[in-house]
Write a structure and sequence with these properties.
This protein has two domains: 5-200, Ribosomal Protein S5, domain 2, CATH 3.30.230.10; 203-336, Alpha-Beta Plaits, CATH 3.30.70.890. It contains twelve helices and twelve strands. The protein has helices at residues 74-77, 102-111, 114-124, 144-159, 165-175, 179-184, 220-227, 234-252, 256-259, 268-274, 276-286, 315-328, and strands at 5-23, 29-50, 57-64, 82-84, 87-90, 126-134, 188-192, 196-200, 208-212, 293-298, 305-309, 332-336. Strands 1, 2, 3, 4, 5, 6, 7 and 8 form an eight-stranded mixed beta sheet that branches. Helix 10 (268-274) packs across helix 11.
Amino acid sequence: MSGSNYVRFAPAKINIHLQVIGKRTDQYHELFSLFAPINFGDTLRFQVHPNREIAELKVHYYWSRKMLAIKDGAQSRIKNYFSFQDEEYSEEIFSIGESECLLQKVWKQLVSTEFFSLYCRKLLHGALTIDVFKQVPPQSGMGGGSSDAASFILFLKELCPQLSAELLYQVARSTGADVPFFLFARSSTWGGIGDFLYHVQPAWEGLPVLILRPNLHSATGKAFAYLQRAEMSETDLVRSRQKVSALSSKWKDLEPMECKDMLFNDFTKYLYEELPGYKDLALRLSMLSDDKMIYSGVTGSGSAMFILFERDIDSKRLLAMKKELQKIAPFTILAQTLGNKGLSPSGKAADFGSAIPRFES
């Protein structure tokens, strides 16, 4: 292991459905969402540095040239690029402070545990460097930072099998509400603040999706405040979870096209009213209508938008629509919702199935 490099993929996601049900007594919001991971995301390179006495984590971010499309003035300013896995990257496009870095948040939680100190530091033989090759734009609602954190947790599980899935799930949950989903990395319905997995939704796997990230910026805190959800009692929570579990179970038995009229994102109204450019984009997307289109909307609280299609849509039609969308938003990608392999190439993601709570009606 000494001096070794390990490369792992961290997929992005889309929220096919996102409902903000109410505010909990701990002031977090109770959510219900249909998540789908996609075959587009970041790449993390882990480098173990042997013979270091202090357990230390260093994180370096490198940004894909594609992101120039969403950064004002970057095309003329950025001069230095390097290649990695057939993509061009730069260090200069965005900056992430240590306090914003979810990888550091994971590390600080783990190094404070007695178990990690006794066992895992010996396995790591010292310090660790993570190079994060970013393809997923920040503040896009695609879960890039959360997926990076989950990929890190899964990597530590591979290196240190003694780390329990239960401990790592708790670390994931306290790192961010979306992080537990990326440990599991299946098309599935989730609730709470990453507390509950309701049902895996295999019908939503393998679907083509066009994703565009306009040069519009949504503030998550303002988006939640705009919704003004009422505070929920414990009884309200239980009843709500029973209802969404029943709905989630129903979706499991339906084809995606049969669910299209049930899908929505509660943040859409906020985005349309506070950032008028979103409403204009939605109108443009509706003009690209196709009988194979399942749903078009915003992922998370923004800024990215997507169009989801049935599997049998004509590939030439998809490429033509991508070309049209790039005229509106230069950062436009064509991706596919992922199947059941999860994040880890060794299948370690499956280990977390028993650790993640499930809520059944």
